[in-house]
Every structure is written in structure tokens, then in C-alpha cells.
Write a structure and sequence with these properties.
Shape: globular
CATH class of the largest domain: Alpha Beta
Mean pLDDT: 86
Structural class: alpha/beta
Strand content: 25-35%
CATH topology of the largest domain: Rossmann fold
Number of strands: 24
């Protein structure tokens, strides 16, 4: 597949890394020659320095025979014009644009993206993705990572194994025997910084981080088995009232279970905008690092604090200060992946990586087959892929025990006739079933082969 990626920032670079690693023909375009050089030096990609919306630049990037263009520059308008040029001049069949401004994303204006208006096939909103991720973290407070699959029927939980974990040093195959009715399975383990797909004889050790795929009805029981408490979040303090903080607060206000939320925002203009847009949420104007203001927000009685400003270090310090003041759970928005190893020593419970959430949402639209969802795990080390099984797939009609999955691949669950099943050797996968597959990045091409379909479905 020939792909042009416009924008060589963090998101563009990660997408280029994914696609070039899977032997696609990738060209990166950016008006910053330094970013282009970084991409071409570290990845197997071609690079063009110039403005992505200029027809001559796209022509040099190979737009005449490209299959897809991904516009992920820092400017919404450049991304929109790039897609328009790609459609009108070069007839590129698939166009994905990252748009930040809420006005462009408003549902009442969605007609704008029709082929005869502004021809964008897929619109990705980083702020919406990050707000959704923040709400996910609140839904499973003892997990360092979480994502929902199978139309909300299943959840991927990232759990740290501590000394109080009842199943530590227990072979994974014994977990199936001990908890025969539990619809959950360990699909990934990170040990000493290395992520791998475990085998049935592997044990969980203290200090491991594991990824568990489970039925939503079994989340509480799974948490208990892994030594975690599951507590509802009724009082939440948000530090940062920009697009992300505002979207999280609005979502919390819509919940049927009452959540008392407060926002602390440094900018008076942004604080006033948030106060106007919200009904029940209290908005405080001031610095989220100010101890007196945190005390005014009653941080010691809050169930969780979400630090979602546009500055990583502010988010980390605010999370640490909130924990020191007595808040049991702190979640920080972290753009820079090199800061993530500091989370543990600083006592921050979970983090949200906007780059990872945006990359995941873009990958969902560029995978082969009937892929419904993709979640990028760690620093693009693995993926959780949800896909519909079609008649042309090698999986169709096979018993699970007869399928030759690669070493770095594990089946997390099968959705059959609306019912979620934990994988077992005797279970047969049929056309129309939905499967959730954990795959190390190196094995993603083989997973795509197992999900392969005729070209009509691409």
C-alpha cells in the first residue's frame, strides 16, 4: 500500500513507523526539513520537505498513484486543504485528517465532509480521543491502562502485579482451572521493561505489568483476583479546563450516576468559557499547583484528580501535589513518552498518552480486513485488534486449537451471536464472529493475513 503522511511530528512519525515496519511504501511530508530528516534517518520511509497542501509537493510525494493520505499536521486548515487537493487533483481514494477545533467537529456541521464538499473519509479528533481515554481511566481506577472493546462488552485492563496479588507465581493455565467461570485472559506481560505474549506455563511475578482482556461484567472480580480494589469515582478534580478538561467534565455531567466534578484553570478566559459551557461543574480560576487552591477544591476528599493541561511537567507536579494532599488516585496527561518511567517513582497511578490514543484511532482505519478497533500498547510495541471474521478469512470455520497463531499473538475473546466467549480449544470461529487479538507489532502482518479479505472490503 502506498501512503503519504503529512506532518512528521509525534503522531505522523509513529504512524510512519507502524506502516513502514509492515512493508508499506511510505512518504512523509513536512515543511520542517529537520523533522523530515529525522523520519528518513530512523525509518524506512521517503521524505519531502515542503507544505503538504501544495499540489506540486504532493505530486513529488507520489500522490498520482497513492492509496491513502493521512493529514496530521498541526494546522486543521492545512489538513483540510490537503485532503481537498488530494481528492480534486490526484483522486487519492482514502483521506484521513486530524482536526482539533471543536467547531469543525460539531455534529450539526458533519455534512461538511461529504465528497462533493470537503472530501475527508475519516476525521480524527485528538481532544475527543484523549477525553474518552481519561473517562476510561476513571472507570477502572486500579488499572494503569484501560480500553473498551466489543461494543462495550469487553475491556482491556493494564494491572501492576504487587506482593498482595493472590495469583502471583501461579502458572496461567491454572488460573483457568481455579476460576473456570471467569471470562478474562492475560494477553500480555511486561517484565523488566520487555513486553511479551505469555504462554500457558508462564507465571506472573511481583513487579510485572500485565494486560488482561475481560468481560465488563467480570471487571470487579478480575480486579479482586489480581489484588486490586474497584471503587466508584464520585468526586473528581480536573486540573486544566481546555478542550480536554471541558470534554471530560461534559461527559461526567451526562452520566446517570452522579459525579461531583471541579475544574481548576489558570487562564481566566478559558475558565469563563468552561463555566459558561457547564451546568453542575464548579470552575475555579487559579494555578493547579497552588496548595491553597487545591485545598479549596477539597482535594483531600476527592476520589481522583485528572491533570490535563497542555504542559506535561505541570500535569506531573499537579498529580504529585494532589497525592501528597491526600487524593487516592492521580492521572496525568503525558505527551513525552520519555517521562513515563517517572510515573511509578512519583506515585502517579496512571497516565494518558494523546499520541498513542490518536495513533490507535488512525490505525483502526488503515488496517486490512474488517477491523473495528485497534489499540496501540506501550511505545507501539503491541496492538489489541478487534475484527469481524469474514468468509474469506483463514480463521473462518476453524476450531481455535487448529489455528496456527504466531508466538507473539493471543486470542483475547470471541463475540458470537452477541455473546462474549473466553477462548477455548473447542470453540469454533465462524463467519460473522468478532475476535479480539493481542499481537506484538512484529506479528501484525501475520494477523492481517489471518483476517484477510477480498479487495472489496479494504
Amino acid at each position: 500500500m502506498k501512503v503519504i503522511i503529512c506532518g512528521a511530528g509525534q503522531v505522523g512519525w509513529q504512524i510512519a513507523r507502524h506502516l513502514s515496519g509492515e512493508r508499506n511504501d511510505v512518504t512523509v511530508v513536512d515543511n520542517n526539513p529537520e523533522l523530515v530528516r529525522r523520519a528518513t534517518d530512523s525509518l524506512d520511509v521517503q521524505g519531502i520537505a515542503g507544505f503538504a497542501s501544495y499540489p506540486d509537493i504532493l505530486d513529488r510525494a507520489g500522490a498520482r498513484d497513492a492509496d491513502m493520505i493521512i493529514a496530521a499536521t498541526h494546522s486543521d486548515e492545512v489538513n483540510m486543504v490537503t485532503c481537498q487537493v488530494a481528492h480534486s487533483v490526484f483522486a487519492i481514494p482514502r483521506k484521513i485528517a486530524r482536526l482539533r477545533s471543536q467547531s469543525y467537529l460539531d455534529a450539526i456541521y458533519s455534512d461538511l465532509y461529504r465528497r462533493d464538499h470537503m472530501p475527508i473519509d475519516v476525521v480524527i479528533s485528538p481532544e475527543k480521543e484523549v477525553a474518552d481515554a481519561a473517562l476510561q481511566r476513571l472507570s477502572a481506577p486500579s488499572a494503569f491502562d484501560t480500553e473498551t472493546f466489543m461494543n462495550g462488552k469487553a475491556q482491556l485492563l493494564g494491572l501492576s502485579i504487587e506482593e498482595n496479588c493472590p495469583v502471583v507465581n501461579t502458572p496461567l493455565r491454572q488460573l483457568s482451572d481455579l476460576f473456570s467461570t471467569l471470562r478474562s485472559i492475560v494477553v500480555g506481560v511486561r517484565r523488566d521493561g520487555t513486553l511479551f505474549a505469555p504462554e500457558a506455563g508462564d507465571q506472573l511475578l511481583v513487579g510485572d505489568d500485565c494486560y488482561v482482556f475481560c468481560h465488563v461484567e467480570d471487571v470487579s472480580r478480575t480486579m479482586e483476583i489480581f489484588g486490586k480494589t474497584h471503587k466508584l469515582q464520585e468526586r473528581v478534580v480536573l486540573i486544566g479546563g481546555g478542550n480536554v478538561g471541558l470534554a471530560v467534565a461534559q461527559a461526567l455531567e451526562k452520566r446517570t450516576t452522579r459525579v461531583r466534578a471541579k475544574i481548576i484553570e489558570k487562564s481566566r478566559a478559558i475558565a469563563e468559557r468552561a463555566a459558561d459551557a457547564l451546568e453542575r461543574t464548579i470552575v475555579l480560576h487559579g494555578d493547579g499547583l497552588d496548595g491553597a487552591l487545591l485545598a479549596e477544591a477539597n482535594i483531600s476528599r476527592a476520589d481522583a484528580v485528572l491533570a490535563v493541561t497542555d504542559d506535561d511537567k505541570t500535569n506531573m507536579l499537579a498529580a504529585v501535589r494532589a497525592k501528597a494532599a491526600g487524593c487516592p488516585m492521580a492521572v496525568a496527561l503525558i505527551n513525552d513518552p520519555t517521562l513515563v518511567p517517572l510515573m511509578g517513582p512519583l506515585g502517579i497511578d496512571a497516565y494518558i498518552n494523546p499520541r498513542s490514543t490518536t495513533v490507535s484511532s488512525i490505525l483502526r482505519h488503515i488496517r486490512h480486513g474488517r477491523v473495528r478497533s485497534v489499540y496501540s500498547i506501550g511505545d507501539a510495541e503491541a496492538e489489541m485488534i478487534e475484527a469481524e471474521v469474514l468468509s474469506t478469512s483463514p480463521l473462518s470455520g476453524q476450531l481455535i486449537r487448529d489455528i496456527d497463531f504466531p508466538e507473539g499473538v493471543l486470542l483475547g475473546a470471541v463475540l458470537k451471536d452477541g455473546k462474549l466467549h473466553r477462548p477455548s480449544g473447542k470453540l469454533r470461529i465462524d463467519e460473522g464472529d468478532v475476535v479480539a487479538i493481542f499481537s506484538m507489532s512484529a506479528d501484525v502482518p501475520e494477523v492481517e493475513r489471518l483476517l484477510q479479505v477480498s479487495i472489496d472490503f479494504f
